[in-house]
Amino acid sequence: MRAAVVFVLVAAGAVRADVTLVGVGTLPGTASDLSGLKGKASDGTPNDRLGGLGSAIAYTGTGTEYVLVSDRGPKDGTVPFACRTHRMSVTVKPGAKELVALKLTSTTMLVREDGKAFDGALAAFTGAKPEDNLRLDAEGARASRTGTVFVADEYGPVVYEFDAKGKRLRALPVPDKFRAPKPGKTPNDELPPFAKTGRQPNRGMEGLAISPDGSKLYGAMQGPLIQDGGLGAENKRVGLNCRILELDTAGGKAREFVYQLSDPANGVSEILAVSATEFLVLERDSLGGTDAKFKKLFRIDITKASDVSAVASLPGGKLPKDIVPVKKEPFLDLLDPKFGIAGKSCPEKFEGLAFGPDLPDGKRLLLISADNDFVAEQPFRVYAFAVDRNDLPTFAPQVFDTK
User: Which fold does the domain 21-391 belong to in CATH?
Assistant: First the structure.
């Protein structure tokens, strides 16, 4: 009996300090960006629509400035869309009249080295090699310590580095096992029986993290690869084992780790570095409003995880004893009633994570952005959370070079 009491006390002592929601910043779904583009897309969406930018949010290291990316555009990639990034001031003031203030400061169009614009349309490809194509579905972004921006392309998947003017500087090599063997103009063209390996369509590299010192990037796949038991009969999603790809920004050897989903219906939307070995992972279902059931952040640790870069295929469920997945523990449930997020207005797509400057009381600022998918009736939202320092004891801020 005494042992049981001791266990309870120890468990209680391990409980985290409370994470609180400071406020929510919003912009209307009909807002315009600063691209200056005129006219409308083939579906009627204005070419300067400020949409889809909740796909990624990253701190730049300067004041309250963040970089955000619009994803592939309206109508799920069925219409041409000129790809772009945005700079936005996100000011968080607990106790102020406006708790979270959003102000768009610039829009930058993304182009290749030859000046040709990247296009969000599924059909914007001419060959199998992602780097040679114009199609881009930007789902992850991180600012480098020198001011460039790394962008994760879900189509490839591939990671690009862009300069401040939006020109691509390079493509970081992603192993062939991640890539669709033959790009298709529809998602079904990239599913079995047409594809037996590579990322699932719409389940590619959805998240991107950068280590505090800027030496490593971590691309998180939204779902398991096809050869990793990702799909069952009639291409139903049944797999649990997602790969996280570690890329050396200086060109060193890559590594891969396994993140296990809580449910095969879920997907990984983002990954954010806490330290050199710990990260926050955003895992969610594909439901919004009152149907939403799973929108959670987990803290993971890769210290003891196996490097599976030499493993050609993984099982869909239980892993072999010699493969150790990343350590995973709950951190934050966005549907906890205390936050007031659950309900009719709950976004389907929480997709961006970023740490910002510490709050006035010393707590860590954690921002979570929601992708409105270019739906005019849905506002763009940024949720600001205050995290007690004791909840992230190993936290190391990202280093930025100053001139």
Answer: Tachylectin-2; Chain A (2.115.10)
